């Protein structure tokens, strides 16, 4: 039988082994943080382990921030990780903003990081473009178009390619419209400016007037960017849209006139056919009336109103009339 002292020694030994295992498991991370001046307690490390949080990258991120002179609590870093954020890029963006003298705190950096999650953007890129402005081609090459086309008042098409220099506005990044909106607004402004020009020559003479007018419209309102400049990279003359429209209108008018003429011709043909039918009808009535003459002569014979001599005299008159007509028709 073991005595009480031996049992206590065994329990203390087991507890000691467990404590030693825990210390050895977290010792390297704890020591790294302690040496870097970014102390993290064993209780925090054990809690992160139990919450299945990769404590190593979390502690390394705190060390990175601490070395850069930024104090961030380990719980805030862990909370950003649990929210689905990218911890290390957020720390790097915070350091880059501090080095560039940009006012960016931890909460806003986390918000920007979460806002860019799932997109091709990142909080690091947002800070970078805030320090180093980026250039956006207008129209976007991905759209498949190379120029923005507008038509001046004289009907001449003007093709323009612009480059927009923007800087990220971190205060408006969360909830602000992105590059697609900038490109659409600039394109709309260019088309409107060209359309208000009296002649394409005015646009060609001073292409910078386009950028001035577009820039004055405040196109960056509600976006995540601040437009620094709009530069006209290329301007060219396109087709004579006005002449094409007039040609199309003339063709339409011609087709309309031909259709109306066809309607009148069809109406005339129908009227002609109707008149032919009426003439045939009248001729039939004449034939019918002439057929009544022999019947009337027969009735006159029977009733005694017409004698034989009268009949012969009528036939002589008809023969004489026929002879006169025949003589008059001879050449």
Textual characterization of the structure:
- It is a single chain.
- With 331 residues, this protein is of the alpha+beta class.
- Helices cover 65% and strands 11% of the residues.
- The protein has 13 helices and four strands.
- The protein has helices spanning 4-35, 42-50, 55-67, 74-82, 87-99, 106-115, 123-131, 170-173, 179-196, 200-205, 208-215, 241-303, 308-329, and strands at 134-138, 148-151, 156-168, 225-240.
Task: Give structural attributes.
single chain; 331 residues; alpha+beta; four-stranded antiparallel β-sheet; 65% helix
Q: Which residues sit in consecutive blocks of at least 5 with pLDDT less than 50?
A: none
DSSP helical segment count: 13
Order of helices and strands: HHHHHHHEEEHHHHEHH
Helix % is 55-70%
Tally of extended strands? 4
Overall mean pLDDT score?
Answer: 87
- Biggest sheet descriptor: 4 strands, antiparallel
| CA(first)-CA(last) distance | 168 Å
| Derived structural class | alpha+beta
Shape call: elongated
Estimated radius of gyration? 51 Å
Strand percentage lies at: 5-15%
